[in-house]
């Protein structure tokens, strides 16, 4: 993985004199810094400029468009390299599990943000007139604000709990509201209503009883991400709470296989913590290989 954890680990190992190869499923390195932050939050090219600076140390090779698809690949990496650091992030998105989720116009917010980050001309991206974002984190806010900036007439964020539980910070919420986004609390989605195969509205249950319907021609799901466990089946790794079990230095139960960043159990999904994970793992890997 070429996100913050993987890059930090590679950099720290290269500084210690190791030759490092980074494999990543995407065409460009950077992870969430490249694909996961709304376009309005990041100066153009910032993530790639940071990667270029990091790679300038030498000793680090990139292998893009390489996707981990099974335990055999992981075993092959372990056979070819002295140590492997697993920093694959949380690649899958949660499902709502309600009727109408497969209708046209229902999208994952993280895919939308990634598309925005790679678009050459944002003005040419299609956007709905009435947008509903389901979720309460920063990705929900990013999708909502970006929709308004692209010309959506109405944008609603629907969160199932109250303001105190909402993951997005008060500053993020205020940012959204001052840009024309309406935030609803205590709304749990029960059905995405369609017309001719396309979304027409979302029906919610209110926390205090009753229902509410929000008309929409575009719905973004922003209810969190999870580890893609499939490629890790049969690898010998232990999963805990849907993430890889490893100690603070990234050691798993498999010899010379380390893990860190968002995919490690106990992480808080913060870039600064992912970087720290990578740095600690690099120190542990170096100590083990030079003992």
Describe the structure.
- The protein is of the alpha/beta class and 291 residues long.
- Helix content is 29%, strand content 23%.
- The chain contains eight helices and 16 strands.
- The strands form six sheets. Strands 5-12-6-7-8 form a five-stranded parallel β-sheet. A three-stranded antiparallel β-sheet has the order 9-10-11, with no helix packed on it. A two-stranded parallel ribbon has the order 1-2.
- The mean pLDDT is 91.
Number of helices: 8
Looking at the structure, what is the overall shape? elongated
- Side-by-side strand order of the widest sheet: 5-12-6-7-8
- Residue fraction in strands: 15-25%
Radius of gyration: 21 Å
Following the backbone from N to C, one meets helices and strands in this order, namely: HEHHEHEEEHEHEHEEEEEEEEEH
Kindly state the percentage of residues in helix. 25-40%
Number of strands: 16
Largest sheet entry: 5 strands, parallel
- Span of the ends, CA to CA: 26 Å
Structural class comes to alpha/beta
Which runs of at least 5 residues are low in confidence (pLDDT < 50)?
none
Would you tell me the overall average pLDDT? 91
Secondary structure elements and their pairing?
Blueprint: H1 4-15, E1 20-23, H2 32-35, H3 46-55, E2 60-63, H4 71-80, E3 84-86, E4 92-93, E5 106-108, H5 109-118, E6 130-134, H6 138-149, E7 154-159, H7 170-177, E8 181-185, E9 187-195, E10 198-206, E11 211-215, E12 218-221, E13 225-226, E14 239-240, E15 243-244, E16 257-259, H8 271-289
Parallel strand pairs: 1-2, 3-16, 5-12, 6-7, 6-12, 7-8
Antiparallel strand pairs: 4-13, 9-10, 10-11, 14-15
Helix pairs in contact: 1-8, 5-6, 6-7
